[in-house]
């Protein structure tokens, strides 16, 4: 664990998980992660969030080295990577009071067995005076559970943002350049925030009038130039992109010929595209590309009447993560009979997209098939330009 002073009497206590390579068994974390807890030393000592249960001992050691008793624990989100060490903290500081939203209180009781009388639920806009410091609680639901809130600290103007604006990125640097944060922040947004892009917009609106000098999320680095991450979130959540992602599988090359043809045509039409062969692409790479795409071309051969299983699992994920795509086109080769269109529509059943006329061809594509792909490319160009 590392103690970093981020302002007078304000400390970041970061647990470094350098080797972690996946989160929630789905989100890749190539740069590891950190679990960040924050201490405000004042007349009342306040701890904001905690750490993974397995790292509770390190957090307790750091608090001991800072020689503090804890009066309040602010639980901004009940998930175990932030609140899992609270039971251990309560054993060490039995008089500490826990504050969280009403939804957070219920989850802390259910997930961590914390007694109800230890937790006070707080309302949006409620404040807490620590003495010299004042904490303002802003309820920000669905970034990323229904219980989430952020805390604005005065007079320092630090926003403790929990998962909002976080990234899985184990680094000892504080961030003041866009290049340092962009990739991991985008990966995090794509997997955690994208399904709730409208809630993200609403929560950004709630923060709009605050003067924020520093953002201190509960994973990854402290961000010294808040405008860089606020700008990225504004762009990602406002769905202004117009790229086309082509995700494909081809077992014997026919579907791949179709992909190469339509990709070439779209490039000739000056459409920004990204082509991903799912046989050798990480799922995360595709999900990140979808953050700023307006259309997706799914290219799959028929396997046992349905989309190739790798395509099907991607469709399931796309349906869940709700990228901002507005148009879906299905292309692919089959041998004798196919139900691929029906299955694709089923798998994308809950996202609000327009399905374009599919181009499904028997065997190897010929001249007429390529002409149909040209028509589809023109239609896509026309649609995304609107
Ligand atoms: C395991 C397997 C299952 C298949 N099942 C079907 C099927 O149910 N219906 C069909 O029309 N073609 C089926 N095919 C044939 C392929 O869809 C066909 O060969 C197609 O052209 C392959 O496209 P590709 O060259 O892009 O891999 C199957 C092929 C394989 C290898």
UniProtKB/TrEMBL annotation:
Domain Flavodoxin-like per the UniProt entry, residue ranges: 244-381
Organism, scientific name: Methanothermobacter tenebrarum
InterPro entries for this protein: Flavodoxin/NO_synth, Flavoprotein-like_sf, Metallo-B-lactamas, ODP_dom, RibonucZ/Hydroxyglut_hydro, Rubredoxin-O_OxRdtase
GO MF terms held by the record: electron transfer activity; FMN binding; metal ion binding; oxidoreductase activity
Domain of life of the native organism: Archaea
Protein name per UniProt: FprA family A-type flavoprotein
Stretches assigned to coiled coil: none
Classification via SUPFAM superfamilies: Flavoproteins, Metallo-hydrolase/oxidoreductase
